[in-house]
Amino acid sequence: MAQKITMNHRFQCRCGALNGLLSQPHQALRGVCYCKDCRAYAHHLGAASGTHDCLGGAEFVAAQAQHVSFISGIEQLACLSLTEKGLLRWYASCCNTPICNTARHWKVPYVGLIGACLKTDPVAFERSFPRVQMRVNTGSAKQAPPSMRLSTVVSLAGFIPRVMLSSISGAYRKTPFFDQGRGAPVVAVTALSEADRASAYGAA
Ligand SMILES: [Zn+2]
Ligand SMILES: [Zn+2]
């Protein structure tokens, strides 16, 4: 049987305490998000210079939760959300490195891994994710970024059905972010206080 051989892609926090693997990197989508929420989050963690470019965009890789696993340091994993209903934003509490975003509910098994934690080895990053396939929330960029509407639509058209399929098949249950029984996040989620939110968005 012909089998596509792919390397797992390693990700880690800045200090290296927390690290893990993304399997099937060829199924993931590399993108850039220009939204203000991502900037506010990075500012809150004091990590904006490492995650965002001068246009206010942050590279990310969209993947399925079942392909993400942790090797070590999972006890450093912490989670916050900008609002009570916002995305779950997972980070390494040892050095405040943003790791990934997930939906609040495990049946939407999408994971947006933050580019910075995937780029410890920049050559491996380019090999695993050779091109930017989508740019999202470009309306919130600080200046107009290169346009790529069509390729974004085409990329998502391949990716979203895979996420939906794993939601239907029950593969969503294979996730390091939610417990297997009730589907609750594996760590307590902290929503930002109004004051912290105001200061994070003020800086973004
Ligand atoms: Zn760390
Ligand atoms: Zn964003």
How does this model look, in words?
The chain has 204 residues and is of the alpha+beta class. The protein has one domain: Metal Binding Protein, Guanine Nucleotide Exchange Factor, Chain A, CATH 2.170.150. Helices cover 27% and strands 25% of the residues. It has helices at residues 36-45, 48-51, 115-118, 122-128, 149-169, 194-203; strands at residues 9-12, 19-22, 29-33, 58-64, 68-72, 77-81, 88-92, 97-102, 110-114, 134-136, 189-191. An eight-stranded mixed sheet has the order 10-3-4-9-8-7-6-11. The protein is globular and about 40 Å long. The protein starts with 8 loop residues before the first strand and ends with a helix. The model has no long low-confidence stretch (mean pLDDT 91). The structure holds zinc ion (2 copies). Residues 33, 35, 37-38, 137 line the site of one zinc ion.
